[in-house]
Amino acid sequence: MGGIDVISFDMLLHSYHLLLFNDPRRNFRRVVAINESKPATAGEVKSAVSDVHDHQDESTTPQYVDQSYPAKWSERLPWIGTLLHSMRFVDWKIGVPSHDSRQPDRHPNPPSHLRFILTAILRTLTGFVVVDLTSAWTQQDPYFKAFGVSVDSPLPNTGLITLIPPRLLRCTIMALQVWATVGQQFQLPCCLPVALHWAGYLSDPWSPHLWPTFFGSFRGVFTTQNLGAVRNFWGRYWHQTLRHYCSGPGVWIADFTHLPRRSYYRYFLLAATTFFFSGIVHIGLVPPEPAFAVKSANEIRWLILKFFWAQPLGFAFEMVVSRVLRGSDTPKPIYVMLNIVWFAAWYCLVLPLLGEAGRNLGYWRMWPIPLSPWQGITRGQWLPWFA
Predict the structure, then answer these.
(1) Running along the chain, 387 residues long, what does each successive block of 10 average in pLDDT?
(2) Contact call for residues 120 and 188 (beta carbons, < 8 A)
(3) Which of 8, 146, 208, 331 sits at 20 to 30 Å (Cα–Cα) from 193?
(4) Could you tell me the residue ranges of all domains in the chain?
(5) Number of neighbouring beta carbons within 10 Å of residue 79
(6) What is the pLDDT of residue 79?
(7) What is the pTM of this model?
(8) Which residues span the membrane (predicted)?
């Protein structure tokens, strides 16, 4: 097996979702804004006004209409072009009630242009510092660089931090690095279209400060009135850019077998298929011949697959426990504590799979950023790549 890459398989799923499991020309509708003073053409308006939104004096207050596949070529080109690059299907009705009912989807409390840009810069700098500080740990902890060292092996002697269980600390380090890299990569690229919208060169749908956020509230992962931290993490907090493409085959199977929309069977089928394909997407991170690995490429891919394919098992456990506790009068603070403990326990169980994969891929063999405040302050080496 030579290997696949993330982008190629993602585009394959994208194509299957639009061409095999759906019929966009028949069933998809683009939600577009029209000026209140200007009536829409017959080819543009296919249904009544959907909603009216106020963007806190930052934008106009448009009316929204549903646009089916246009007959005119001039209208068809933006319809198709927008569909092809819309990974989350914002401003699209795709035949999924839970998704369509939120369209047009907008930020509930959109920030000002300046606040969005400043926040994006601050979060990027925060992610930069987090990567720098966590790298200071990975460079001294043999678990991250030496093969055969267990995630439960004793920590390096660095004072009070050794009071933390080794597995918990190492999994936290890995989680922080993923958050700092994946979680913050959406920030700076969004500043340019927001600035262009601020200057009047882009319309509302093209300005990210009005979009629903890529990431939800991490606090909301733990505050539901049931045991649901793992489900909340993936469904409410983590980015949803692959959700529709990876769940498309499962939705098709569920509809073909007439599974009720709110049944446990349908939910678990969708969760299983979504993470099945998400795992395959992510094994594209493994090159055909990893340079630093002691495991084969397929063994590393299997580690990544097991991490993603295990997530529905966490969902199932939460659903069973929540069903058992449903009749109890458990206070919300108790649920918050249960969710925090359960979330930490679950990821201490499954994150070492990614840790072993990352160790074989050489993720921690070098300092990941070219400018290091930590190394500059402690060693005088501000540019570790050139030291």
Answers:
(1) 75 88 91 58 39 43 83 90 86 86 81 92 92 92 90 85 90 93 83 93 86 86 90 89 87 90 89 93 89 89 96 94 83 90 96 94 89 90 85
(2) yes
(3) 8
(4) 29-100, 113-210, 219-360
(5) 20
(6) 92
(7) 0.85
(8) 267-288, 333-354
For residue 229, the one-letter residue type is A
- Give pLDDT, residue 305: 96
pLDDT of residue 61: 59
Which residues lie below 8 Å from residue 40, measured CB to CB, with a gap of 6+? Answer: 34, 65
Residue 174, CA distances (Å) to 24, 64, 143, 149, 365 in order: 40, 43, 12, 16, 14
Alpha-carbon span 362 to 167, nearest angstrom: 20
CA distances from 267 to 14, 45, 231, 249, 256 (A): 22, 34, 11, 13, 15
User: Cα separation of 357 and 340, whole Å?
Assistant: 26
What's the pLDDT score for residue 2?
A: 61
Distance CA 82, CA 30 (A): 9
Residue in the structure block whose two tokens are 């072993």: 356
Q: Is the peptide bond before 212 cis (omega within 30 degrees of 0)?
A: no
Contact 374, 383 (CB under 8 A): no
The count of C-alpha atoms lying within 13 angstroms of the C-alpha of 308, restricted to the half-sphere facing its C-beta, is 19
Which residue is listed with tokens 């199977």? 253
Q: And the tokens for 258?
A: 């007439």
Residue type, 295: K
DSSP states of 230-263: HHHIIIIIS--TTHHHHHHHHHHHHHHTT--TT-
Instruction: Give the Å distances, CA to CA, from 287 to 5, 130, 182, 290, 366.
Output: 8, 27, 19, 6, 18
Question: What is the side-by-side order of every strand in the sheet holding 63-67?
Answer: 63-67, 29-34, 92-93
**What's the pLDDT score for residue 35?**
61
